[in-house]
Amino acid sequence: MTNTPSNLSYLDPARAEPWASFIEQIDRVAPHLGSLSHWIETLKHPKRILVVDVPIVRDDGTIAHYEGYRVQHNLSRGPGKGGVRFHPGVSLNEVMALAGWMTIKNAALGLPFGGAKGGVRIDPRAFSRAELERITRRYTSEIGIVIGPDKDIPAPDVGTDQQTMAWMMDTYSVNIGHTASGVVTGKPIALGGSLGRQEATGRGVYIAARQAGIRTAVPIDGARVVVQGFGNVGGIAARIFRENGAKVIALQDAEATVANPAGIDIPAALTHAAAHGSLSGFFGAEPISVDDFWQLECEYLVPAALEGQLSPQRARCLRARIIVEGANGPTTPAADDILRERNILVIPDVLANAGGVTVSYFEWVQDFSSFFWSEEEINARLESIMINAFDAIWQTAQERQVSIRTAAFIIACQRVLAAREQRGLYP
Ligand code: NAD
User: Fold this and answer.
1) 353: Cβ below 6 Å to ligand 1?
2) Domain limits of the chain?
3) What is the DSSP letter of 148?
4) Cβ contacts of residue 63 below 8 Å, gap of 6+?
5) How many CB atoms lie within 10 A of CB 261?
6) Model confidence, pTM
7) What's the topology of domain 46-180?
8) 106 in ligand 1 pocket by Cβ < 6 Å?
9) Nearest C-alpha to atom 42 of ligand 1 is from which residue?
C-alpha cells in the first residue's frame, strides 16, 4: 500500500475541514505550475506530525491530560515557522491546515522558512495562570525533540501570548542547558523579543488593505470597516484602521456582536476588552444579531477570529467591497467562488496576515546577531516586504486572470516546489 490520502485517515480530505480546504486550494493551483506540478503531492503530505500527551497536576491536586500537536508541513525552504494555538477546537486536522498555510505564507513573502504549527486542545480561560504555565512547559518539553532555532520556531497564535513564549523559551533553554532566545518569536522585549512584533499582524492587515484600496480606488480614509475577532490581530487592525481615518462600525468577539454606525471608539473598546475579557457590556456600541453583523454594508470586512467563518451562505449575503483576511483560513473554497462571482475582492490570509511572521523573521534574525533594530526600522522593513509581496501577487493575478489567493499560491508553490526539485529526493 502507498501513502495516499485514502489510507491515511488524517490525510483524507473528505474527513474534516479545514485540511480539506487547504487540499482544495492546492488542487486549484496545480494546473498553473507547469512542470513543477510533478512535485505537487509533497504539499498534500505534511513532513512530520507529532502528537503529544500533556499531563499536569491541577491546582486542586487532580491529574489531567491534554492533547497537543506540532506539525511541520514542509521544510524545503528552511526551518519550520508557525504559531501555537490554545483553544478547545484545536484538532490534528486544524493544525495540519494551519501548518500548510504557513508553508504558503512564508514562501509567498519570500521568508526563508518552511511551514509549521502547533496547538493544545484546551480552553485557556478555564485554567489558572499557574496551570497554564505547567501546560505550556510540559507541552514545550514534549515537542522539544522537533523544535529549535534552526529546526522549528513557534510563535503566538489564538489563546497564547508573549508570556506563553517566555515560558516556552525558558523551558527549552533549561532542557538544553543554555539560553536559546531564537527558539520562539513573539517574546517579551526583555528576552530578545522585537519591537513592533506584537502589533505586526494587525499592522500588516492594514497595509494589505491600504494597498488593495489604492488599486481599487477604495480609500481607507472615510471607509466603513467591520472586524470579526477583537484579539491581537483584530483589535490592533481596528485601531490602525481608525488612526488612518476609517470608521469601524461593527465588532464581534467570541461573546458579543456590537455595532455603532457613527464609528466605534476603538481605544475605549480595547480598554473594555482588556478589563473584562470580551466586548460584552461595552457601552460604546449596541448589540446586534450575528446575521445582521454579516450583512452590514461596508467597504472593508476583516475576519480576524477563526477559520471557516465565511461560509457560502454568508458569502451570498455580505455587503462588503473588500475582504481582508486577518484570520487564517476564514473563507471556505466554495465561499471564495461565490465572492469572486459577486466581484468582492478577497485579500487572502497568506498575504494579509503575513505581517506577524515577517516581524517574527526580523526577531529571529536579531536574536541570531544579538543586534536589535529600532521600531522605525522594523516598521519600514515590514512595509517594504508587504508592499513588494502585494505588488508581485497582484501582478500575477492580473497576468493569469486568477484570484489574489490563487496568485499567492502560484508564487509560493513555485518557490517551495523548485526548492524540493533542486534538493531532490533522498535516497
Ligand atoms: P486572539 O486569541 O488574540 O483573538 C481571537 C479573537 O477572536 C478574540 O477576540 C476572540 O474572542 C475571537 N473569537 C474566537 N472565537 C470566535 C467566534 N466563534 N466568533 C467571533 N469571534 C471569535 O487570537 P489572534 O492572535 O488575534 O488570532 C486571530 C486569527 O489570526 C487566527 O486565525 C490566527 O491564526 C490568525 N493569525 C494570528 C497571528 C498573530 O500574530 N497573532 C498572525 C497571523 C494570523
Assistant:
1) yes
2) 46-180, 199-352
3) B
4) 55, 56, 57
5) 13
6) 0.95
7) Rossmann fold (3.40.50)
8) no
9) 356
